[in-house]
Amino acid sequence: MMSRCEQCLIKEFNNLNALSKEELKKISDSKDIHTFKKGEVIFSEGKFVTGVYCIKEGVCKSSQLNANGKEQIVKFTKKGDLIGYHSAITNEANTITVTALNDVSACFIPQELIKKPLDENAKFSTAMFKTVCSDLKEANNAITNISTNTVHQRMADLIIFLKDTYGSTEAGVIKIQLSRKEIASAVGTATESAIRILSGFKKDGLIDLTGKSITILNEIELKRLAEGL
Amino acid sequence: MMSRCEQCLIKEFNNLNALSKEELKKISDSKDIHTFKKGEVIFSEGKFVTGVYCIKEGVCKSSQLNANGKEQIVKFTKKGDLIGYHSAITNEANTITVTALNDVSACFIPQELIKKPLDENAKFSTAMFKTVCSDLKEANNAITNISTNTVHQRMADLIIFLKDTYGSTEAGVIKIQLSRKEIASAVGTATESAIRILSGFKKDGLIDLTGKSITILNEIELKRLAEGL
DNA sequence: TGTTTAATATGATATTAATCATTTAAAAAA
DNA sequence: TTTTTTAAATGATTAATATCATATTAAACA
Question: Whose CA is closest to A29, among A110, A129, A141?
Answer without folding.
Answer: A110
